[in-house]
TrEMBL record:
The keyword Iron-sulfur applies. Signal peptide: none annotated. PANTHER family: PEPTIDE BIOSYNTHESIS PROTEIN YYDG-RELATED (PTHR11228:SF22), RADICAL SAM DOMAIN PROTEIN (PTHR11228). InterPro entries: Aldolase_TIM (IPR013785), Radical_SAM_PqqE_MftC-like (IPR050377), rSAM (IPR007197), rSAM_sf (IPR058240), TusA-like_sf (IPR036868). This is Fe-S oxidoreductases of moaA/nifB/pqqE family. The lineage of its organism: Bacteria, Bacillati, Actinomycetota, Actinomycetes, Propionibacteriales. CDD domains: Radical_SAM (cd01335). Keywords: Iron, Iron-sulfur, Metal-binding, S-adenosyl-L-methionine. It comes from uncultured Propionibacteriaceae bacterium.
Length: 365
């Protein structure tokens, strides 16, 4: 279900009859409205009108700048009062940013990588989990049939890397089928490595192609910090899981998530990983994002996150760390991927055009 009303049928509005309507509520261009109007514009034909309603005062300034950058035309504007809400009618001009050359920066090239939340339930309830996963979370599982369609379209688009995350992917009863659906792509599974040591999950692990990379969460060189953030006993079981995976011939990457980078603690973690034989290139130190369960950490937004399109069973998102943020939702369904990536490309083009022109269009709270 859409988080804000997006009407796809012709409708009468205060700015006239239009083909579609987006009601952005209190969102500004930097907190999600841009994604809504970009998706709506992609569904219009040249010359058709989109109505946009907003209760956010900054949009009255920002939206005309956006239209100028994109090449569309604001044909009407109306304020219901001096304090809003504001209405705009924008005509789609069938040209503009489609030929824009994107800046490369340090971002992963768009179209190379896709994230999949296989499920949202987890055996842990980490204090900073951006996905709000826990043993009590609804599973929201991706089906094998859905992922086969996703992987086929992603491969046809020239995609290379498929990341499976959660939740804990090894809680998904069809994980083996999900991984097999991505055959031919570079596949990585993010896991806490605690539950694949026995029974059916051990069988799933052993049956996997050894080209699959396992990225294991380990936040510290000793149990104190890791267990405080993830739960008592989790450090020892994660270390055992790393050892098991490596003994079975899997390449293992280790990722530590930290509120503050303690140099001494990071050095100790590297020393521990040296002892375990984890290559330096297979170590990731990342900050906590202020999303999900985390009430502190790095603030993320459309402006600060390089896009890494992410799908779930019920939608598509700008980046995997923002999968609980309604302002960074791209679509209400995971397919078609062409639309998901198209919305991201169009949004990046506006951001890049704004940067080149020296204009600041997208405001963050």
């Amino acid at each position: 279900m859409a988080l804000y009303p997006v009407l796809d049928d012709p409708v009468a509005t205060p700015v006239g009859a239009v083909s579609r309507l987006v009601d952005g509520g209190e969102m500004d261009c930097g907190s999600g409205l841009l994604l809504l109007i970009t998706r709506a514009m992609r569904r219009l034909g040249g010359g058709e009108l989109l109505a946009i309603r907003s209760e956010e005062a900054s949009v009255d300034t920002d939206l005309p700048v956006w239209a100028e950058l994109v090449g569309h035309e604001v044909v009407d504007r109306l304020a219901e009062s001096s304090s809003g809400p504001w209405w705009f009618a924008v005509r789609k001009v069938d040209q503009g940013l489609r030929d824009t050359v994107f800046s490369s920066g340090s971002r992963t090239p768009l179209g190379q990588r896709l994230w999949v939340y296989t499920n949202f339930d987890c055996n842990l309830a980490c204090s900073y989990c951006c996905a709000e996963s826990s043993p009590k979370a609804a599973s929201r599982r991706v089906t094998a049939d859905l992922l086969r369609g996703v992987a086929a379209e992603f491969s046809a688009m020239g995609g290379r890397e498929l990341f499976y995350t959660g939740g804990e992917p090894f809680l998904h009863p069809e994980l083996g089928d999900l991984v097999q659906a991505g055959a031919g792509l570079e596949r990585t599974i993010l896991t806490n490595a605690m539950i694949f040591g026995r029974g059916r999950r051990r069988e799933t692990l052993e049956a996997m192609d050894r080209s699959v990379l396992l990225q294991v969460s380990l936040d510290s060189a000793s149990p104190e910090l890791h267990d405080r953030q993830r739960g008592k006993g989790s450090w020892a079981r994660a270390v055992d899981g790393i050892g098991l995976a490596r003994s079975l011939g899997f390449r293992v990457r280790v990722a530590a998530t930290l509120y503050e980078e303690d140099p001494a603690g990071v050095r100790a973690l590297h020393a521990t990983l040296d002892e375990q034989g984890i290559d330096r290139e297979d170590r990731v130190i990342r900050p906590v994002a202020q999303e999900g369960f985390a009430d502190t950490g790095v603030h993320v937004s459309l402006d600060t996150l390089e896009p890494e399109p992410t799908i779930t069973a019920d939608g598509a998102w700008w980046h995997p760390v923002a999968v609980t943020d309604p302002h960074l939702r791209i679509a209400d369904a995971p397919l078609p991927l062409a639309e998901v990536f198209g919305v991201v490309r169009d949004t990046m083009a506006v951001q890049d055009a704004a940067a080149r022109s020296g204009r600041e269009v997208f405001r963050c709270a």
